[in-house]
Amino acid sequence: MTAVPKVILILGSGANVGHHVTKAFIAKGYKVASTSRSAKEESNSSDIINIAADLSDPDSVAQVFSKVKSSLGIPSVVVYNAAAAFPVDNKDPLSLTLADLKPSLNINTLSAYSAAQQARLGFEELPETSSRTFIYTGNMLNTAVMPSLVDLGAGKSATAHIVQAAATAYADRGFKFYYADERKLDGSPPGRNIDGEAHGKFYAELSDHKEQDTWLIWEDTSDVKNDLAFPIQQANLSKDATVPSVSGGVLWPDEANKLFYLFGGEYPNVDELRTRDTQGFTLWFYDTIYNTWNRSASDASQARIKWPAYGAGAVTDEGVAYWYGGYLTENSDSSYRGSDFMMNNLISYDMNTRRWNNNTWDQTRRAEGSLHYIPASEGGMLVYFGGVETNRTGGQTTFSNMSEIHLFDIANSRWYTQTSVGDVPKARRGFCAGVVWAKDYSSYNIYLFGGFGSDGAGLGDLYILSVPSFQWTLIYPLPQWASFPGGRGWSSCDVFRGNQMLVIGGELTNKSISDCDVPKIQGQHALVLGQENVELNAWWHAPLDNITGYRVPDQLIKKIGGDTDGHATATAPSMGWDGEARDLEVYFGTSFIASGREVTRPIPTPVASSTSQPTNASKGKGSNAGAIAGGTIGGLAGLAAIIALVFFCLRRRKRKGVNQQPGKTESPSSTSPDVTGMAQNPYINRSPVSPDTGTLSSAIMHPLPYSPQSSPPPPSIPWHGISSSYYQQPHSPPPYGNQAAYAHQQQYYPPPPERSLSAKNEATYAMPVELPSAETPANAELPGSPEPEEPSHSQVQTPRPIRKHGFI
């Protein structure tokens, strides 16, 4: 069988982008056909042909494709790189004449539509091994407004919609359609400084991607006025294959600059790790204003930084991100060879200066625990507990004792360990937790949910650790259950509004239970953290939008004294301070109020719109820090509060995915302004989100798969406000200082009515990579759900005791 030749057609080839795209694809063994008005066809060869074409005539496009097919073969990659604009007075956009508008729309939209149409017809004749990729060079005008370029903006917006529709409709056939938009590191357009070489490299990378199957999922936590009573998850922000898809990493939010950074995590395989290494070790970050992925500029201070996985992360109010412990593995750092190596260093990244630090103050190596920032002492503190650790002598890995709480005083750069008492939880890893505190900072309360016990079984209980009294309180279930057939670990947990938490997904160990217990609301559970649980007679409750601030609940007041506003009387451990930890008594006597951070990049003013304008969700002092990824701008529906529920969904859709990736573009004619750009998500259908992109300053462009997701139908379960989740029996706590024992299993989660949240019943496997300071506990039942039933034990399976890679 004769091999199908690899052919690329470039419509609108210029001396910059067109030249470099041609060069990049020749290096990949492609035959190249390019068009321009002044093409000299007499210089054609057997592998490179030039075709004269006027793209202001959409009817000419089909003729171009016919000529390419007869000369070189069916193009498996089509790049539409033509653009045109007729600038007018910025204060009078309607002064543009129809005579000028028509050719502009022909070039920017109608000829592009015809090219996509012809590309699709050709793709249907090509084998699955062919690239079958269409890339439209766009710019920011599909989401931004420049009145003087009304024709170009109209054309780009219309074509972005066409690209989105094509990507959605033809994804199951393996056809890929991208809208490309180049941006600078700060998210602004490149102007005339278009990087043609980066375009060529990036477009070549796009042609190699067989699928666009990764999503960046977000939700608006103010969006609870719907039939579901829960925020609806959106999958219209996409993340291309160039951006790492890792498990066991963390997202660090930079609220001042409305960014979040991806750090750490294991790659699915060594090949993807090597791809990262070719790009150079650096941080990827997501811009929530322009909705673009970029790479940060490297700094000499990062030379001592390795890329770990399954550690713990947090971010301070001053914009310093921390990572503690974790593993160095062959799939996280290519310079490492050998079995997984547990770490004991504390890595920090200052988002203001972009400098790294890597220090080791503790000899014990730890992983899979939880790290939280609290505004105590002179410069804030980090609180760490749980997970696993390697002892200092024999190197044996054991589960950490949950009564041992490790605290790092930031101002003094020193670790302390203090013993906690009360309803000390069973040792565990893979749990999630979130922190809030009293108005007067007299208590800092960390809510913990689930995880995997030392026997590998999934857990489903809920505890509060309160410091500085260092007391654990079991709050769910009461009385404690022996085991949890529906228990899970690796859930994504996020504090929002400073008084509630959302819990999403997780990994079940009971294989008789389907992968999603509440698919209609995409595996979400909500928890009220404060006194509202008493007033509502339920911890687990649909999100509430009528409460503000955190009120210390009665269950804690009974232990630490005071009232709902704070005023705790138990401000030290009941058994006294442990050795050097007595320093903490002084440190906890002070609260740290960070000075306002300066924005280090331009933040645009929102464009007036008939729709609500996006804002940041309110956050209690620090308790919600990191929960908000940022607002967005511009004339589409505003995003009121992008929560820290943003996580990477490694959803393998096997060609069912509807994704899109961007590339770069240039303007071929003298009348075309250089408002072009880099790889961008084709178009966002609900929010003013400009598609994902890459960083040209680092010569990388990023395709962004687009995957629309319909709202799930309303659940059949009645929502709270009517009845509570579970009847909670009076609780008799175990003796202080002892870890709770578990004897026999009881049913916790009912089997789900559907297999997944997809309309096509496609199972979702995801690893939530949480925004560190916005973690939250728990996987709980929806209000009004049935009481637990006695389970069978035969289907309970335990995961690997240290790390797990398959996630829901």
Automatic annotation (TrEMBL):
<protein>
    <recommendedName>
        <fullName>Galactose oxidase</fullName>
    </recommendedName>
</protein>
<dbReference type="Pfam" id="PF13561">
    <property type="entry name" value="adh_short_C2"/>
</dbReference>
<dbReference type="Pfam" id="PF24681">
    <property type="entry name" value="Kelch_KLHDC2_KLHL20_DRC7"/>
</dbReference>
<dbReference type="InterPro" id="IPR011043">
    <property type="entry name" value="Gal_Oxase/kelch_b-propeller"/>
</dbReference>
<dbReference type="InterPro" id="IPR002347">
    <property type="entry name" value="SDR_fam"/>
</dbReference>
<feature type="compositionally biased region" description="Polar residues">
    <location>
        <begin position="658"/>
        <end position="698"/>
    </location>
</feature>
<feature type="compositionally biased region" description="Low complexity">
    <location>
        <begin position="739"/>
        <end position="748"/>
    </location>
</feature>
<dbReference type="InterPro" id="IPR036291">
    <property type="entry name" value="NAD(P)-bd_dom_sf"/>
</dbReference>
<keyword id="KW-0472">Membrane</keyword>
<feature type="region of interest" description="Disordered">
    <location>
        <begin position="601"/>
        <end position="623"/>
    </location>
</feature>
<feature type="compositionally biased region" description="Low complexity">
    <location>
        <begin position="718"/>
        <end position="730"/>
    </location>
</feature>
<keyword id="KW-1133">Transmembrane helix</keyword>
<keyword id="KW-0812">Transmembrane</keyword>
<dbReference type="GO" id="GO:0016491">
    <property type="term" value="F:oxidoreductase activity"/>
</dbReference>
<comment type="similarity">
    <text>Belongs to the short-chain dehydrogenases/reductases (SDR) family.</text>
</comment>
<feature type="compositionally biased region" description="Polar residues">
    <location>
        <begin position="607"/>
        <end position="618"/>
    </location>
</feature>
<keyword id="KW-0560">Oxidoreductase</keyword>
<feature type="transmembrane region" description="Helical">
    <location>
        <begin position="625"/>
        <end position="650"/>
    </location>
</feature>
<feature type="region of interest" description="Disordered">
    <location>
        <begin position="656"/>
        <end position="808"/>
    </location>
</feature>
<dbReference type="InterPro" id="IPR015915">
    <property type="entry name" value="Kelch-typ_b-propeller"/>
</dbReference>
